[in-house]
Amino acid sequence: MSQSLLVLSDLDGCLLDHHTYSYAPAVTVLERLRAASIPVVLCSSKTEAEMRPLAEEMEASPTIICENGGVICWEKGGERTVLGVDRQQILEVLTECKSRFEFESFRDLGVEGIARITGLSEDRAQKAASRHCTEPLLWHDEDNRIEEFRSTLSPHGLQLTRGGRFWHVAGPTDKGKAAAVVIDRHRAEQSAELISIGLGDSPIDESLLLASDIAVVIPAFDGSVRLEFPHRRRIVAPHPGPEGWASAMTSILDEYNLR
Question: Is the pTM for the entire model greater than 0.85?
Answer without folding.
Answer: no
